[in-house]
Amino acid sequence: MIPSVQEAIKIVVLYHSRHGTTQQLARHIARGVASIPHCQAVLRTVAEIEATPSATPNDPIIDLQELKECHGLAVGSPVWFGNMSAAMKHFWDQTTSLWVAGSLIDKPACVFTSSSSPHGGQETTLQSMTLPLFHHGMLIMGIPYSEPNLHTSFKGGTPYGASSVSKEGHASLDKQVSELAFSQGQRLAKTALALQLSNTTQTS
């Protein structure tokens, strides 16, 4: 049974962005999600813990109920010393109640990032964002090498997740980078939809 509109598959695209590049990646991932029938992208950000504002305009700040109810999740952060940003880490440190309840177990998830230099620590940052997802029991997805852009892009893109190298935060993303983010959103949505259909069949 295909879910009705009222039962749309909701994919949360959660990000923190200081200069706008990670926010742009989030939007391309959301476009990929929305391109899959019956799937809806929910763009959310996390609260700042420092005085410096994030890129504007911001999407709404995530709350735990939205995270609990999602069918899939994409998480993005800029590279901060080879790690996720403090704001993103602070958010995950507040999700113990969902961990205890097992609310995110077996839901698909992916990660994405951006940096101002090609050797800024993209892959370690992507891996750092998977750690809380593993602890929550989520199913981590990357980008397969069947994506042609992964072989040829010099502006970003890794098998661990979409990424971008940009010194101008508000400049348009590289076309190949945008396409990789879009494809990652599609893959996440297709997987979440397939899992939901499987669960529906098993319980019907």
TrEMBL record:
InterPro entries: Flavodoxin/NO_synth, Flavodoxin_CS, Flavoprotein-like_sf, FMN_Rdtase-like_dom. Residues 11-189 form the Flavodoxin-like domain. GO terms for cellular component: membrane. Its cofactor is FMN. GO terms for molecular function: electron transfer activity; FMN binding; NAD(P)H dehydrogenase (quinone) activity. It comes from the Bacteria. Keywords: Flavoprotein, FMN. The keyword Flavoprotein applies. Belongs to the WrbA family. This is Transcriptional regulator.
